[in-house]
Design goal:
about 180 residues, mainly alpha, two-stranded antiparallel ribbon, 6 helices, about 5% strand
């Protein structure tokens, strides 16, 4: 029985005698059982970014803080659409990163995309923290002992969670496969 190079068959008659198949089988037998699996952490980037964008968008419709209305001497719940329009930037940032990371679904994203992701995360973290501090300062200026004004609503908490998701995606993108 001669090999495929000499015009003979290379194995059982039901298998094609192509060199590609033989090379693939030889590589699998040599390396297939000992090769390390690829890390799959990048598979989570796209769903996490889509979830972060949805959470930012949803947080706009939820209550964020309470505001004191002087004319009526009552407290009004403030939604994200009324006062927190900067949150739309978070949804746009997450969607931009989703598009950029989708281009790199099979391989690691480049350094520019990673740095852009870190800049977006930092901008959103600074925005959420400054919003919290500004509303707490507002509450303290009206009445420092009144806990009603120091209210942090579900919209704020959802935007904070979306910011954490953006940070998680950045960490996953920066990690190198071994």
């Amino acid at each position: 029985m001669s090999g495929w190079r000499n015009g003979g068959t290379a194995g059982p008659s039901h298998l094609p005698a192509s060199p590609d198949l033989l090379i693939l089988v030889a590589m699998w037998l040599e390396h297939g059982l000992t090769a390390r699996p690829r890390p799959r952490r990048r598979l989570f980037l796209l769903p996490l970014l889509a979830l972060a964008a949805a959470m930012y968008a949803l947080s706009l419709f939820l209550p964020w803080h309470h505001r004191y209305v002087v004319e009526t001497r009552t407290y009004q719940s403030v939604s994200g659409l009324q006062e927190e329009t900067w949150v739309m930037a978070g949804a746009v940032f997450a969607l931009v990163l989703l598009v950029l990371f989708s281009r790199f679904s099979r391989r690691a994203p480049g350094t520019r995309v990673r740095i852009l992701s870190a800049v977006f995360d930092t901008a959103m973290a600074v925005a959420v923290i400054s919003d919290y501090l500004a509303w707490q300062a507002y509450a303290a200026s009206i009445n420092p002992t009144l806990a009603t004004l120091q209210y942090v609503g579900p919209g704020f908490c959802m935007a904070l969670a979306a910011t954490v998701l953006l940070a998680v995606t950045t960490v996953l993108a920066w990690r190198r496969s071994e």
